[in-house]
TrEMBL record:
This is Fumarylpyruvate hydrolase. The keyword Metal-binding applies. Residues 27-225 form the Fumarylacetoacetase-like C-terminal domain. One of its GO terms (molecular function) is metal ion binding. Keywords: Hydrolase, Metal-binding, Pyruvate. It comes from the Bacteria. InterPro entries: Fumarylacetoacetase-like_C, Fumarylacetoacetase_C_sf. It comes from Propionivibrio dicarboxylicus.
Length: 227
């Protein structure tokens, strides 16, 4: 096959405990999946899960220096549990959903909140608020064989050493099996898909020079510096 230009390299995420890496196909995100975050965003109640996507090349495997994006005065952090799909499927039953998981990771869903809010007001897509370059730092994926299926445990974010977000995975409105089942009713999930599962309350604005550190019990930590 001859390309008109050299195609981009495959985006891949390191895997804990080995040299092999996880090739990423698509990146899905669940909106407002913790009740306290729903409240701080002005929502109410346990609404059906909804999804949006980030470009695969927005991922920053391993963290490190991350560029502060243009066109925003309100760039915010969100710490999230990321589910890595290892077995695909459509219309996956809730009671079989965990069989499709390869592993889990810590991820940051960085957000141009002002652009997202403007898009909401106008009924427009969120891509420019959520899909900017380097807007998805992600830590190494821990295989299920090493971590099981975390349904509870601390999830937290610090900015310059001070806690901004402190929650527990047990507070998720829609649990991982429900998220997988619901998403697979819309699209065919395939190996290599990642699902960012939402964030607890405490999201706040960050600026150039800030250091963001986040972690989830049993899955390690992730750190980035905004430049």
């Amino acid at each position: 096959m001859t390309f008109v230009f050299t195609p981009s390299a495959q985006i891949a995420v390191p895997v804990v405990g080995g040299e092999a890496v996880f090739p990423v196909r698509r990146v899905y995100c669940v909106g407002q999946n913790y009740a306290d975050h729903v409240a701080e965003m002005g929502g109410d109640g346990r609404n059906p899960p909804f999804f949006f996507s980030k470009p695969v090349d927005a991922l920053v495997p391993g963290g490190g220096d991350v560029a502060y994006p243009p066109k925003t005065e309100n760039y915010q952090h969100e710490i999230e549990l990321v589910v890595a799909i290892g077995v695909g499927g459509r219309d996956i039953p809730v009671d079989k959903a965990l069989d499709h998981v390869f592993g889990y990771a810590v991820g940051f869903d960085l957000t141009r909140r002002d652009l997202q809010a403007l898009a909401k007001q106008k009924g427009q897509p969120w891509e420019m608020g959520k899909g900017m370059d380097q807007g998805g730092p992600i830590g190494a994926i821990t295989p299920v064989a090493k971590c099981g299926h975390p349904a509870a445990g601390a999830i937290w974010m610090k900015v310059n050493g001070d806690f901004r977000q402190r929650g527990d995975l047990a507070q998720m409105t829609w649990k991982v099996p429900e998220v997988i089942a619901n998403l697979s009713s819309y699209i065919v999930l395939k190996p290599g898909d990642l699902i960012f599962t939402g964030t607890p309350s405490g999201v706040s604005a960050v600026v150039r020079g800030d250091v963001l550190e986040g972690g989830i019990d049993g899955l390690g930590e992730l750190a980035v510096r905004l430049i």
